[in-house]
Task: structure prediction
Amino acid sequence: MAAAKGGVSVENILSSIFSATYLAAVLRISTPLLLPSLGALISVKAGVINIGLEGIMLMAAFTGATVGGLLQNALIGALAGLIAAGLMALLLAAFHLGFKGDLILGGVAINILGSAATVAIGYQLSGARAGGLNLPPTGIPDLNLPFLRDVPLLGESLHTALGRQNLLTWLAFLSAGGVAFMLYRLPFGAHLRAVGENEQAAASVGINVRRVRYTALAISGILAGLGGIHLSMGYLNGFSRDMTAGRGYIALVIPALGGYTPLGTLAAALLFGAFAALETRLGSFNVPSQLPQMIPYLATLAALIIYALRQRARATQG
Result:
């Protein structure tokens, strides 16, 4: 069905969505959602949900881009970002596990600290109130896979979708398998799940509950930090104020939608990434700008409703 002049046809929209370019965008956009979501999953399994993912991502994104830009070394910048993320997570752990502070309030404080500190430090370094720094860009490179073009029939499409993805995108999807292996194949994973399910029972068999939860929050922070680093050094080359744009909060919802399993979390992150990529795609057509901007938030609301319905169904069955 053709559209009127200046409009857009359904065929054009569908062909834009069902394409290798769209798949590439979904994978790229899903990366900074999947990594903190895996971090949220680990903290939930340990019984200490990490509400501070947003602030941790921001601090890692800022530190990685700033150190990498100053030294013109992406690897050192990324490592600095991970250290900052780990320290933020350990700060939350110390507040809750060491000083017995409220975990939710501590997470909110971490989010506020991440947002405010990045702007304040950025202003001191450059005088820019927007939080950005005028530094030469440095980023994590893409992984070029030219051999995908040699695959019969699908070669060009495969290369378009997968052939130039960022290294952190590949690491994110490998991390889903790594988290699954850790949770269900390693002794630490069994201890972590035992602590989250019943900390008294876990302690009675000799598991150090406090140490397990410290470690879980640290791993959660590092995964969230990788998501922030991808934003400032992979997805974009540079930091801007509050560039996480709520991804840390959305990451708290994704594991629930995925049934609190690593592979379910992966699938849910891809679903959210598909909605976010759809927003970008529809924004390029002649449609009201408010419509595509609503899509990620409607997806989050739908996920919360689905999760609530599933919880009610389980409670009824129980």
